[in-house]
Amino acid sequence: MDLERIGFVAYRLDLPSVAIQSVFHVSQLKKHIGNKVVESSPPQFPKAPTLQPQVVLNCRMVKRSNKVATQVLIHWKNQSPSDATWEFVEEFNFRFPQFSHEDKVESKRRELSRV
Prior knowledge:
Elements: E1 3-6, E2 10-13, E3 23-25, E4 53-64, E5 67-76, E6 85-88, H1 89-95, H2 102-113
Antiparallel strand pairs: 1-2, 2-3, 4-5, 5-6
C-alpha cells in the first residue's frame, strides 16, 4: 500500500476505488507489524428502493422563505397511503418531469383564490 504525505499530519493512502476517504490524519494510522496481508472487500449495501409517484392526493399553499409555495401530497407506488409525503412542486417537477399533476394543482389554486 503506497502512502503520499499531505502536509505535516495527513497521508493519502492508495486504496482500491471504493466510496471511502483516502486521506487520513496520522493519529488514525497504525504501524504495520509482520508480513501478513489481509485482503478484504468493502461491505455491500443494498440499494434503497426507488420511489415512484402514483397519484397526487392533495395540494396546499405554504409559506417558504417569506413567499407562497405550492406543495402536493404524493401517494407513492407500493407504499401505504399513510406514507404519503408533502413535496414542493418545483422540486417534485425536477425529480419527476414525466409525472403529470398540473390539473390537481391548478384546480386547488383556483379553489384557494376564491377564498
